[in-house]
Amino acid sequence: MYKAVFIDWDNTLGDFSGSSNIAMETIYEKEHLERFFRSYDEWREIYMPYNIQLWELYGEGKITKQQLSADRFNHPFVVKGYNNLQDFAIKIEEQFEQLTTEYTRLLPHAKELLEYLAAKYPITVVTNGFPEVQHTKFEMTGVNHLFTHKVISEEVGVNKPDKRIFDIALRINNIDATEAIMIGDHYNVDIIGAQNAGIDQIFLCNDTDEDNALPATYHVHELLEIRDIL
C-alpha cells in the first residue's frame, strides 16, 4: 500500500524531552541560576510554555531560528525583572544546543523499529530541528544510515505543519501522497501537516481519551505497535 515512510525525529525517535531536561539541569547548576530563580523548577516552568509558543511561531514561519534562539532563554530573566542579560541568555542557548546533542538518546525500540522499516521502505526523516544539531544526532545515535532522505525545515525553507515540506518529501521520493505515511508524536505539527498534504498518518500518542479521540489514520502508544501497521 505504501511506498515510503516519513517520520519525525524529536520525541518520536529521539528522546528530546529527556536530553533537554538533563541539559537544563546541568546548565542551572553550572551557571548558578539560583541567583535569579527560586529553584530549577521555577526556571523551567517559566521557560517551557514560552519555548513551546516560540516553536509554534517558528513552525508557522512567523519568527526566524535566530529570533527563537535569542529569545527563549532570555524570557525567564525578563519575567523575573532582569532586562540586561541577553548575552548571558545567548550563552545558555549555545550550551543547551551542545548539551542536548551530547546527551541525545533514542527512545525505547526506536532503532529496532527503524531497522524493521528500512528493510521494507525508504525512510525519510522530516523534522523542524536545526540542521547542525539534527545531523549530529542522527550520527551519534547510530541510525543515520537507515534514512534514505532527510528533510530538515531550515535546509528546505519551510516548516511543519506547512504542507509544502511534505510535498518536498514526496518529490524526492518520486511518489504520490497516497503512497506515503507519516509517523509523528506532535498532533498539530506532524499529523495535521500530513493530513493537509493528503498523507496517511500514524499518531504516536499518549493513551488518553483526548489523544485517542483526535482524528488520525492510525493511533499507537508504543513504537513497536507500528510493525502491526506497516
Q: Name the CATH superfamily assignment of the largest domain.
A: HAD superfamily/HAD-like
What is the average of the pLDDT values? 95
How does CATH name the architecture of the largest domain? Answer: 3-Layer(aba) Sandwich
Number of strands: 6
Number of domains: 2
Shape verdict:
elongated
Poorly predicted spans: none
Q: Could you say which structural class the secondary elements and strand pairing correspond to? A: alpha/beta
Sequence of secondary-structure elements: EHHHHHHEHEHHEHEHE
Discrete helix count: 11
Strand order of the largest sheet: 3-2-1-4-5-6
* Helix content bin: 40-55%
Spatial extent as radius of gyration? 18 Å
Q: In this structure, how is the largest beta sheet organized?
A: 6 strands, parallel
CATH topology of the largest domain: Rossmann fold
Query: Given this structure, which CATH class of the largest domain is correct?
Result: Alpha Beta
Strand content: 5-15%
